[in-house]
Amino acid sequence: MGMIVLNVSISLDGFMAGPNVGIEYPMGERGERLHTWLFNSHSNDVESAVVKQISSRIGAVILGRRTFDIGFSLWGEQTPYPAPTFVVTHRAKDILPTANGTVTFVTDGLR
How confident is the model at residue 110 (pLDDT cuts 50, 70, 90)? Predict the structure, then answer.
């Protein structure tokens, strides 16, 4: 049986993004500070090992359509991790191959 793991970055006061999320500020104003530890160079071997372990175990990624629409160009038009990515949406679109994976738009079962 497979295992599903929810992995998100969140601040100690409960925020996943800064205020005013949109195209100009994809993570909200100053929201990228919540995620820099994961995507930037790491200050020590422990951080590097944690990030490597997280990345190596990802079998698939599930995104909402808004996250895809805002993030795709920022990710260099690739999937956020080198794994198949599924976008839950009401707006169907063909499978999108990228340099490091595929993006599949899932509309089944949505009302």
Answer: low
Phi-psi region of 76 (alpha: psi -120 to 50; beta: other; left: phi over 0): left
Mind spelling out the 3-state secondary structure of 69-101? HHHCCCCCCCCCCCCCEEEECCCCCCCEECCCC
Nearest Cα to 101, choosing from 74, 77, 68, 65?
A: 77
> Domain for residue 103, yes or no?
yes
pTM above 0.85, yes or no: no
Judgement on whether residues 50 and 66 belong to the same structural domain of the protein: no
Nearest to 24 by CA among 67, 64, 70, 57: 70
d(CA 30, CA 40) in angstroms, rounded, equals 15
